[in-house]
UniProtKB/TrEMBL annotation, chain A:
The keyword Coiled coil does not apply. Pfam families: ATP-synt_C. This is A1AO H+ ATPase subunit K. Its main location: membrane. It comes from Candidatus Methanoperedens nitratireducens. It is found in: Membrane. Keywords: Membrane, Transmembrane, Transmembrane helix. GO terms for molecular function: proton transmembrane transporter activity. Signal peptide: none annotated. The lineage of its organism: Archaea, Methanobacteriati, Methanobacteriota, Stenosarchaea group, Methanomicrobia. GO terms for biological process: proton motive force-driven ATP synthesis.
TrEMBL record, chain B:
GO terms for biological process: proton motive force-driven plasma membrane ATP synthesis. Belongs to the V-ATPase V0D/AC39 subunit family. This is A-type ATP synthase subunit C. It is a peripheral membrane protein. Component of the A-type ATP synthase that produces ATP from ADP in the presence of a proton gradient across the membrane. It comes from Candidatus Methanoperedens nitratireducens. Has multiple subunits with at least A(3), B(3), C, D, E, F, H, I and proteolipid K(x). Its main location: membrane. GO terms for cellular component: plasma membrane; proton-transporting V-type ATPase, V0 domain. It comes from the Archaea. Gene3D superfamilies: ATP synthase (C/AC39) subunit, domain 3, V-type ATP synthase subunit C domain. GO terms for molecular function: ATP binding; proton-transporting ATP synthase activity, rotational mechanism; proton-transporting ATPase activity, rotational mechanism. Pfam families: vATP-synt_AC39. It is found in: Cell membrane.
């Protein structure tokens, strides 16, 4: 009979990997939602300004992608989780 | 999840800010004073008014062209605001721009009352409200005041018009009161405290102008009270009652208690003409809305700031051109400009 207090190291490793993957997924997912929420107002404003004056295209685009850095933070955390641990 | 306040107003605010950037800068007005009418028309024809000047250039000349181009541009700009806004902003803008319906109804009724020609009335009509240009053309074709009122029976303005007994001043007054009462109701419905604050300040400024005019004309308290619009922020009904009862010099002194005093303090010594007072009050209104629109950038206030600024731009241009046409001295024209 197998002693229940002895856990197979292969199962532990597999479990840990799974949890890390979930963590990485949550990091990227939540950061994506956050960046999207940040961008919705900026994007709307950029389109509004651009509709009046095409010169705002460059500035509008720049402003719109600034919250995108949050998504990159999430990606970095996910990569660290997946490849460092 | 509902949209936040910021998201609701981001689009329309960015758009009107870009539109405001295209208004004529105030440094230009002194330059206009040194130009002749054809030069000003050419300048205007190369600016935001290009389409209107080109389109109407075939039909009109000189100041008529100017007047029609300004009115048409104003109407199209305001109509565009209604078309590009959504939900709450759209509701408030639509209600606020009913001002022009009132304006048009008054213009047409006055025209019919004094027997002006259709062309003359058309010159002053600005179809920026809910009554379309076509509707207004139909109204202008009616020959009598009663006929115009009957044609308006299906509009929300009819309650103010139905009591017409041969005196235009009464229904004009009713129209103003109806407009502001509906606006206050709209502000309360939308629960937009910024809009309500702006509106109540505007009512105060309007009441102050009425008070100045009536007081300098020596009208009785009861007569003045009939004209004043209820709902101001500082000048509540009790205040208005007190101010209306005072003789002119004491009335001016009593205004020191209110925050509007700082707007008119500089010109309160010379009250032979009310032009300075009215210009200063308009200027106060403009400065006030511009200032608070920067305090609350993602609200309805920047849109209202644009509406007010655009109207004043058109008024200023009209003052300059009309002043030049009648050869008024530069100083007099300058005194009328709100900038």
């Amino acid at each position: 009979m197998v002693d229940p207090s002895v856990v197979d190291p292969a199962i532990v490793a597999a479990n840990a990997k799974g949890i890390i993957a979930i963590g990485a997924g949550i990091a990227v997912g939540l950061c994506g939602i956050g960046a999207g929420m940040g961008e919705q107002a900026i994007g709307a404003a950029a389109v509004g300004a651009m509709a009046e004056d095409e010169k705002f295209f460059g500035k509008g685009l720049l402003m719109t992608v600034i919250p995108e850095s949050i998504a990159i933070f999430g990606l970095v955390v996910a990569l660290i989780l997946l490849f460092v641990f | 999840m509902g949209k936040s306040q910021a998201v609701k107003y981001a689009y329309i605010v960015a758009r009107v800010r870009a539109m405001k950037g295209k208004l004529i800068p105030k440094e230009m007005y002194p330059k206009f004073l040194n130009m002749d009418i054809p030069e000003i028309t050419r300048f205007i024809g190369e600016s935001e008014y290009k389409n209107e000047v080109d389109e109407l250039g075939k039909k009109y000349r000189g100041t008529d062209l100017f007047e029609h181009a300004l009115n048409q541009n104003l109407a199209l700009t305001y109509r565009k605001l209604i078309e590009v806004s959504q939900n709450e902003a759209n509701y408030i803008i639509t209600e606020y721009l009913r001002y022009w319906d009132i304006w048009n109804i008054k213009t047409i009724l006055r025209g019919k009352f004094s027997g002006a020609s259709e062309e003359e009335i058309l010159e002053d009509v600005v179809s920026a409200g809910q009554l379309r240009y076509r509707d207004l053309l139909d109204l202008i074709k009616i020959t009598s005041v009663e006929g115009v009122i009957a044609a308006l029976s299906k509009t929300p303005y009819y309650p103010a018009l139905s009591g017409y007994k041969g005196v235009l001043a009464d229904i004009e007054n009713n129209l103003d009161k109806l407009y502001y009462a509906n606006l206050i109701k709209a502000g309360e419905n939308s629960k937009d405290r910024f809009f309500l604050k702006f509106l109540r300040t505007e009512i105060d400024l309007k009441n102050l102008k009425i008070l100045f005019r009536m007081k300098s004309a020596g009208m009785e308290r009861e007569e003045i009270l009939k004209l004043l619009i209820p709902g101001g922020i500082e000048l509540k009904e009790a205040h208005l009652g007190r101010l209306a009862a005072l003789p002119f010099p004491e009335f001016v002194r009593a205004l020191e208690e209110y925050s509007y005093w700082k707007a008119i303090a500089g010109v309160s010594n010379d009250l032979t003409s009310l032009i300075n007072i009215e210009t200063q009050l308009d200027k106060y209104g403009l400065v006030n809305i511009t200032r608070i629109s920067y305090y609350y950038p993602l609200s309805i206030l920047p849109v209202l700031d644009y509406i007010v600024s655009k109207k004043l731009e058109v008024d200023n241009l009209r003052i300059i051109v009309r002043g030049k046409e009648t050869k008024l001295p530069e100083e007099t024209i300058k005194a009328h400009l709100v900038m």
